[in-house]
Amino acid sequence: MKRIVIGASLAFTVLLAGCLPQVERAEEEVIVVEETEIEEEQEFIVTPSIDTPDSYYRNMLSGDGEYFRSQARGVVADAMQNRVDLDQFELGLMEIASNRFGQDEFYFREGSYISGEVINSWLRRYDPDNENNVNGLNPQLAGGESMEDQMRNAPLMISHIMEHNYFSGNEEDGVNLGGVVIGIGVRSVYYFQTETEDGRLNFFEQAIDSAEAEEYARNAAGIMLERLRQREGLEEVPITFALYREEPRGSIIPGSFISLAEVGQGQNEISGWDAINEDNLIFPSGAAREAQPALSDSFTVFRDEIETFFGRTVGVVGKGRYQNDTLSELQIELNLQSHGKAEIIALTQFIRGRLDSTFQVNAPVNVYVESINGPEALITSMPDQEPFVHVYGN
Fold it and tell me: Which domains does the chain have, with CATH numbers?
C-alpha cells in the first residue's frame, strides 16, 4: 500500500525566524494519505506556513527534507539579461498562481514535467531542416543579404520558460497535482552578434515592438499547451500561462507581467487572454515624477533628510511597484561607504522615526541599509502596523 506522509518541518520555521518580521512557529502536522495497494510507500515533508506580511506557499520536500529542484533550474538563469528580472519573474509567477491556487490549499514545488533539455529545444529558432530545431518556438531566420540582416529581420522573441507545480492533498483524496503555471519571458531588446571572416565579433542590439512580441508569445503558448497535454500527468490538469516582458540589459528595475491565460481542466485551447496592469518606477527619475508626483516629492524629502543626517551625499534609490495603477510596494536602498556601528544604529532609529510621516501610503515600505561590508539594517513599515526594525550584527 502506498502511503504519502506529509509533515511540517519545525526546523524550517526556526531558520526563517531570524530574518523575517513577525514570524510565528507553526505546529507540526502529519497527513497520511493511502492510495494504491501496488506502489511503495512514499513520503513528503511540507514546510510549515509562516506568519509574515507577505504570503508564501508551503513547499513540498522529499521524505529526507531535500528541496525539489527543477530539472530546468539554470536554463532561465542563463537566459536572463539581469538578476532583477530573474527574481521578479519567479516570485511574480507565485503571486499570479495565488489567485487561482489558494495558498491555504496548495503546496508549491518547482517544475518537474518539462526538463531543461526540452526547454532549451523550445527556446531555439524553428528550423524544419535541423532535427535539433524542429521544436523551436522562436522565429526562423528571415531573408537578408547578410547574417546581420537575417537576424535583425527575425529577432528572438521568447527568452525564458519557467514551470511551477501546485499540489493539494489530504487523507481522503491523496496528494495530486492541482495545477501548473508556465511563465514565458518576452524580450524587449534583442542582443545578438555576428562573426567576420577574420574571426572578429560584432555586437548589435535591436528594440522589439511590445505588441508584436506579446502576440508572438501568445501564439507560442498555444503550441506549448498542445505539447503539454501530450505529457503524462498533464492531460487534464489546469494550466495558467503568464507573459513577462523583461527590461533591457543593465536595468536596475525589473520588467513586468503583461498578460495571462487560464486553461481549465481538460481544455485543449486557450480561449482568451487577460491584460495585467503592472509597472515599476525608479525614484528619483523623470518618469516617476511625471507618473507619481506626490510620491516623488515624498522621496525627495526623505533623501534630503538622510543626506542632512550624514552631512554629505548618500546613494538613496527607490523602487516602486504598481499594480492597476496602485502602489503595491516601495523599496528604498541606501548604500554607504564608511560608517561606524553606532552611526548605523542612529541612522536606523532616524529612519524609523521618519518613515511613516514621510511616506503616507497604503503599501509596504522596505528600507535596506547596505555598505561595502554587506547588509547593515532593515526597516519595514506595513500599513496600520508598527515598523519592524533589525540591525545586523558584525
Answer: 1-65 (no CATH), 68-276 (3.10.570.10), 280-391 (3.30.300.190)
**Cα separations in angstroms, 221 against 89, 239, 307, 391:** 17, 11, 49, 46
Hey, what's the cell of 4?
A: 504519502
CB 218 within 8 A of CB 259: yes
**pLDDT tens readout for residues 260-319:** 999 999 999 999 999 999 999 999 999 999 999 999 999 999 999 999 988 888 889 999
Q: In the numeric block, which cell numbers belong to residue 113?
A: 514535467
Q: What is the pTM of this model?
A: 0.80
User: What are the backbone dihedrals phi and psi of residue 61, each rounded to the nearest 5 degrees, phi first?
Assistant: -110, 165
pLDDT digits (tens, 9 = 90+) for 39-55: 444 555 555 544 444 55
Nearest to 162 by CA among 127, 208, 102, 122: 122
| Closest to 381 in 3D by CA, of 362, 364, 394, 361 | 364
Q: How many CA atoms lie within 13 A of 137 on its CB side?
A: 27
